[in-house]
């Protein structure tokens, strides 16, 4: 699994996870449906409920459940990034034609404060700018009870494939 330089080959997150899990003997406890490629998408979709879809705007409700909670009792940072990416792509698709490919060029996140376990979080994705070649989406995570901003992000998509050299 490791390349000669000591780094892992780029086989995907699922393959790396399975390899590490086998090394620590945790793999046998994973259900078969979580042992394949892209298993984390099912995990994220299970905690995210779409509330509103409009052109250039998308709102969802996130339930912070135990599978996505870190050791400190807050929403895991990787889950925040996965949700931000998913919401950004969905929001961009409301304004970018289906025949155009989207390439995620940049995703930046700011972790302002943790979302505790069993909390509900409102996730808003909105278009900042959409042009012929670039679409920018802003994502905000706010506590449902207090409207306190806990995470914020920005995704930049390129609307056409990269030139083949």
Q: What is the topology?
A:
Elements lengths: L12 H11 L15 H7 L2 E7 L2 E7 L13 H17 L9 E9 L8 E11 L3 E10 L5 E10 L7
Antiparallel strand pairs: 1-2, 2-4, 3-6, 4-5, 5-6
Molecular structure report:
This protein is α+β, with helices and mostly antiparallel strands and 165 residues long. Helices cover 21% and strands 33% of the residues. It has a six-stranded antiparallel beta sheet, with helices on one face. The longest helix is centred in the middle third of the chain and has 17 residues. The chain is globular, with a radius of gyration of 18 Å. The N terminus is likely disordered.
Summarize the structure.
The protein has about 160 residues and is an alpha+beta fold.
| Number of E-type strands | 6
- The low-confidence runs, each spanning 5 or more residues with pLDDT under 50, are 1-11, 20-28
Strand content: 25-35%
The overall average pLDDT, rounded, is 81
Secondary-structure element order, as H and E?
HHEEHEEEE
| N/C terminus separation | 30 Å
Number of contiguous helices: 3
